[in-house]
Amino acid sequence: MSQLNAQQIASLLKQQGIPDKQIPTMTAIALAESGGRSKAYNPTGLDKSYGLFQVNMYGGLGPARMKQFGLSKEQDLFDPTTNVKAATEIFRSQGLPAWSVYKSGEYKKFLPQAQQAAQNLPDLQQQTTAPQDTAKQSGRTFIIFGDTQPAVDTKYHLQDYIFRNFADLKPLQIDTGFNPVLELTKAFVENPFKTSNY
C-alpha cells in the first residue's frame, strides 16, 4: 500500500492507541508530511526522513531510533504500521511539536478531512472486547443438564470430565475465544450444587 487516505491513517493511529482527540491532528500531520505516501523519503539537508510521518533518521538519530523502534533497517519505516508505531513513540515522548508541519501550521490545511476521517472511525474498543468479558457483562448463565454430579474432587479432574463429556464445547472456544470449559469448571468448583433458573 503506497498511498493511504485520511481514513486509513486515522485507523492506524487508533490501533496504536493515540488518544481520540489527537487523531485528527496526527492524521493531518501525516498528510502534510508525506501526502499519505508510505514510501515518501527526504534525504536533503539535515533530513533522512522516511514514510508517512517522515521519521527522521539523520546522523546520530538513526542508530538510536533503530534500537528504540526495533528496526532491522531504516527502510522498515516505509511500512505504514511500523511508521505509525514509531510516530506514536515520538508523539508520546516529544509531543506534536516534534513535527515541523505542526509548528508551522501547515497541517491545518489537512485538518478538515482528517477530522472527518476520525469521526468515521469504528469503535475499536467494542470490536476488541473479549468474548468472555461480553459474557460476564451480559450476565449469561451456562447450565449443564444431568441427574448426577461428576465424581471428581479437583478442578483439574473436573476440566477433564467436561472435555470428555461435553466435547462439542471445544469448537466454541476456537471460534469465539470464549472458554466454556473454564467457565463450567469455575461454576462447579464455586457452587456445585446450586440450581439456576433461566
Q: What do you see in this structure?
A:
- A hairpin with a 4-residue loop joins strand 2 and strand 3.
- The chain has two domains: 116 residues, Orthogonal Bundle (Lysozyme), CATH 1.10.530.10; 60 residues, no CATH class.
- It has a three-stranded antiparallel beta sheet with strand order 1-2-3.
- It has eleven helices and three strands, in the order ααβββααααααααα.
- The C terminus is likely disordered.
- The protein is mainly α and 198 residues long.
Major beta sheet summary: 3 strands, antiparallel
Low-confidence parts: 124-156, 167-174, 192-198
CATH class of the largest domain: Mainly Alpha
The helix/strand order is: HHEEEHHHHHHHHH
Strand order of the largest sheet: 1-2-3
Beta-strand proportion: under 5%
Provide mean pLDDT, rounded. 77
Bulk shape: globular
What is the number of helical segments per DSSP (H or I, 4+ residues)? 11
Number of domains: 2
| CATH topology label of the largest domain | Lysozyme
Question: Approximately how much helix is present in the residues?
Answer: 40-55%
Task: For the record, give the distance between the C-alpha atoms at the N and C termini, rounded to a whole number.
Answer: 51 Å
Radius of gyration: 25 Å
